């Protein structure tokens, strides 16, 4: 594809800053009282193989500029993928035109100037992996081969994949703030199947990191996906009952995600949360803690500032089981009569404190007899009422020892009751995402089976 000289595919940070400054100047010239702009460019490579053959090979090159202008309390936004001066001017003009036709919103506007990140820390978030497509295919094939050779009962595959992405995001506004930082993310994954006829089982494993040097060995990922698949063969059904339930870390992360969604500012001012107006209330058991740590080097959700340029900082969301505050942008904060928490764009590294030493063996001992959940299916969650019902698979445990795999069951409860019923959090913490937690043991849930 032909690219104009003034529209190169890869621009330096100072080039993106220049585009932002040009857009903001144009907005001022058109009479905007405030304006903000963000420019991003992303490149990536993704490959997948299945049964030794290449299935997909994708090169990604995306970029965009978005501009938001304010005429008093009237707001207009527009975006473009063309960074040429004429396109930038036209995009700003379109945003200004839109703003003149929108209704006034008393909560519209930039975040307060005093909150801007003036000395953002370097969080070591960019570690480019200059892997070729041929080498990425070799890695994916080695991963899948290790899985297929793990056990003769592994007889099919959904494939192994390798992906690497790097991006640069720069944000600026008419407070005089302009800042940006590069990021990378890399993943290797594998999914395989075992069994025959109606007793086919599948499972997966993956490794993800900012720094490709810290990815798990590809063959080890393949073997773990196979081990997990074999463990699920010949599943039993359970009779309907109430019993303790233990979520493995990668599943427990979702529970914490539901909590974060419920205390998001937009959920609060729209009154669409089961934790409405819950600041100061006991949400979790005494001793339970969730903190936000935005500045962990190399972490997947680290950020020196949020999407509005507001400096991020450590905070405690749950202290001794009590909710201390919401997750707020400047807009949602104004809607609630509060102050932004530096969370425009979401939370940054939520960490659930462990209260049980040891990993899965110790948590299984705490479980005693009950259900270990390793997979959830469906989206049966009502965020207004907190009602929770999802298909599940995992293992039945007796006296702390796994007895047999189980499938075709549903677990149900209410999220508020589930949070209050947390018995233990393990220190087997999964660090692959923006929520870091170990396995979580709940006192009791309804398990619907035969």
Structure description:
- The protein is an alpha+beta fold.
- It folds into three domains: 13-41 and 61-115, 2-Layer Sandwich (PmbA/TldD fold); 133-230, PmbA/TldD fold (2-Layer Sandwich); 235-450, no CATH class.
- It has nine helices and 17 strands.
- It has helices at residues 13-29, 85-99, 133-148, 218-231, 249-262, 265-269, 330-336, 360-367, 415-420; strands at residues 34-50, 53-71, 74-80, 154-173, 178-194, 201-209, 241-247, 290-292, 315-319, 322-323, 350-352, 370-377, 387-398, 401-414, 422-425, 435-436, 440-448.
- The strands form three sheets. It has a six-stranded antiparallel sheet with strand order 3-2-1-4-5-6. A five-stranded mixed β-barrel has the order 7-12-13-14-17. Strands 10-9-8-11-16 form a five-stranded mixed sheet, covered by helices on one side.
- A hairpin with a 2-residue loop joins strand 13 (387-398) and strand 14 (401-414).
- Helix 3 packs parallel to helix 4.
- The longest helix has 17 residues, at 13-29.
- The radius of gyration is 24 Å and the shape is globular.
Cα radius of gyration in angstroms: 24 Å
Unreliable parts:
1-8
The total of helices stands at 9
The overall pLDDT, averaged over residues, is 95
Percent range for helical residues?
10-25%
In total, the number of strands is 17
First and last CA, distance: 58 Å
The profile of the biggest β sheet is: 6 strands, antiparallel
Within the largest sheet, what's the order of strands?
Answer: 3-2-1-4-5-6
Residue fraction in strands: 35-45%
Order of helices and strands: HEEEHHEEEHEHHEEEHEHEEEHEEE
Shape summary: globular
Structural class per helix/strand content?
A: alpha+beta
How many distinct domains?
Answer: 3
